[in-house]
Amino acid sequence: MNKLFSILGLLFILTVCNSCLHSNASENQKTFSKTQKNERLASEKTKKYWYDGNAEISSYTLSQARYGEIHNGTATLIFVTEPFSKTSNTKADYPNQNNIPVLKLNRNKKFNTGIYPYAMMNSTFFPFEKGNHSLKITSSIQEWCGMTYVEMKNNTNNFIFNFNSYFEGASFQNKKIEKTILEDDIWSLIRLNPELLPTGKLAIIPSFFFLNSKHEPFKSYTGEAKLEKSASATIYTITYPKINRTLQINFESSFPYKILSWEESHESGYGKNKKVLTTKASLMKTIKIDYWNKNSTKDSIWRDSLLLK
User: Fold this and answer.
1) Contacts of 94 (CB under 8 A, 6+ apart)
2) What are phi and psi of 229, to 5 degrees?
3) pTM for the structure as a whole
4) Which of 47, 84, 153, 217 is most buried per CB count within 10 Å?
């Protein structure tokens, strides 16, 4: 009888602890969302930096995990402010009082796997102030076998996903996912309001690059996030136990919070070649420039300044 009561007592404690964990994660999520939506503002210094008529372009050396090996390449982060039209779900080309200012990030990776190249691009349209999540995210992967493309639209109540792939049976349309933190938004949040980075146990949708290339379901996963700050640099880490993945972003502790490097660890390869590998990127050069006006052959010298071949 005593043994029975001991087992029942242990089960009760485990249930309470599990409930506390879910409760804490829920409260963390509510606090983050409330702060983002109602209080997130940009300082005058931030506005002056991002609204100077230029984009910020940063180039990185890249060591990319793919097919159980590490492949060398380059990555670029292109941050630029622009107005976004919720009506057309695109960049707004005409003034309208309903346009929403966003910090757009085009994140690019280029590397070769043996004979054939990979080109990956992810675009996020993150509200410059107040909003919780990107108004839209698009992500694509192109390589010689074919291409895949996913688009997320931020509707009133849900995220709506559409995915097109050259893999049979992989495509889907109008998939609704409950709104939660998007990993792809973390990069812009770092640049605008790093003090609001969520920590603790989170419900989070991982990088579209990862979900796409690993053929994982597009949905939210449980993650654990932490922030480690020093005088010169801050490290933000998200760990996903279920998918055995960790993302670590290293950025400046002081304004303008430039992203210095990142690492992403997860299983790569198939069969006997499957192993946990780490993708690494390290900053080479940053410039501020109106790149859309630098499209003649003579302007190719700007690629040299970014150390891009």
Assistant:
1) none
2) -115, 135
3) 0.88
4) 84
